[in-house]
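haha ok so turns out i had the wrong file open the whole time. this is the CORRECT one, sorry everyone. sequence first:
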Amino acid sequence: MTTTKKMMIAGLFTASLMAWTSSLQAGQITGFTWSSGIASIALDPVSPPVDPNNDNVVGDSPNGILVTQKAFFDANGVADIVFSVTDSGGTTEYAFAEGVSNSTGLDFSQYRIELGFGEGALFVPSTSGDGLDFDAPDEDSTLDFSAFFSTPTLVGEDVILATGGLFPNLAFTTPPFIFSIDVPDGIDSFTLRQIPIAVPEPASMALLALGSIAAFSRVGREPE
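then structure:
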């Protein structure tokens, strides 16, 4: 792990501890709930931000949200974490560090993160320009999925797609996935949706191949 990554993770822990004694009374992420797709999740307590209303801070925000572990047991699972929000008179940027474990029996070839509202079947994606985004438009904070993926790409303002690697079964993110979220006024909650994209099982690939062969064999046949 590089010195920069160690300092980033240490900073998130320090920010969490400092916030317990902070007297700032400003808008912020105030709590969370989670549902669907995961067997368990562990977050550090959500505390007042060290630096509220710091939208588009240069470098990594001192306002840390630490997800120590999120355990996927379903290869087709969708993890929704809903964060409650109060107004702050501006937009607060948070640095997220997430520990993710894969116990699905399959390797992940990609990892997708989306911002939106609601959960499960009621999830609605965030739209461009609504203020909720992954550090847009500057995108000058850490975006690190190097534990397993070499290419984390921002797809618009509200989607991160990590590719260029493999997240093996029974593996854990070391270092954690790191990204930033701008949280605006005018919303009472938002959803962080995470979708692992698994490599198909060998049996599924075989069925797909058989289906392709069967379809090819019908090509050119005259109707009886």
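The chain has one domain: 3-218.
again sry for the mixup
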